[in-house]
Amino acid sequence: MKCLPNYNYSIAVAMYLxxxxxxxHSAEPILAMQFGKAALHIAETxxxxxxxxxxxxxxxxxVIHRLEDQYTEALSIYEIMLLIASEQNNTSxxxxx
Length: 97
Fold this sequence. Notes:
Elements: H1 7-25, H2 29-46, H3 51-67, H4 71-88, H5 91-96
Keywords: Membrane, Transmembrane, Transmembrane helix
Transmembrane segments: 6-24
């Protein structure tokens, strides 16, 4: 019997990313990155069965790095995203990246 996912973790990921966006708009990119990394940790630790949350968190971190003109870090994050999407055969994610 398959367990249903605990949506509390998905809600926590969404809240962390939302708070991070608020810090990003208030010119606090370091705090925005910390909230993004915390969301990614939750997604990879507790939502390992659903890699879409991880892709969302990685995309968030890549965008924050691009906003801060840290293009090499953003490119390395996009490479991780490509690996995850190709492992899943997630064509929509591959096209989005």
